[in-house]
Amino acid sequence: MVLRNSKSIQELDSLSADITKRLLELPEIISADTVSTYLHIGSEVRTSRIVDWLISNGRKVIVPITDKLNKRLIFSELRLPEKELQRGALGIPEPKPEFRRTVPLEQADIVLVPGVAWDLRGYRIGYGAGYYDRSLNSLRRPVPKIGLSYEFQIVERIPNGRFDMRVDKLVTERRSVDMHLDEQTPR
Known about the structure:
6 helices; disordered C terminus; 7-stranded mixed β-sheet; Rossmann fold; alpha/beta; single chain
């Protein structure tokens, strides 16, 4: 996270634009009707362009709301980001109470997942509270998970436990890596 935080806003914006372009070209995004995405904070891969593209192309966008009391995420449909969002728990943007439209995560065709660091097996380090892992572990059906990462966030190996969820694909500014292929080549 220190390296990520040392980058300028302009550099992070530029890298995020490249990640967004690569992501929006993926067949699974193009064919998705409902996409769950995080709303970025700080130096995370920016998701606002992704959200704007999805909404303007008729996709349903669902975003997390942090339920600190129960240490879980609740998901809500987002329709008008500029009108519906406020800073929520932990400073993360989330829908204002009057705009909350709860949607089960199982309805997502794709889940975009944030991370602090990633390995090429699809494991990640988050912020340590386990909200995303609990949400992904509670899914009653498999939903493809795509991690969004700057190339410099990739490390050799992330330690993982039995509750740590792997993403199916990792998208950086340089490549898209399918975790189910033996050969990880740039795309």
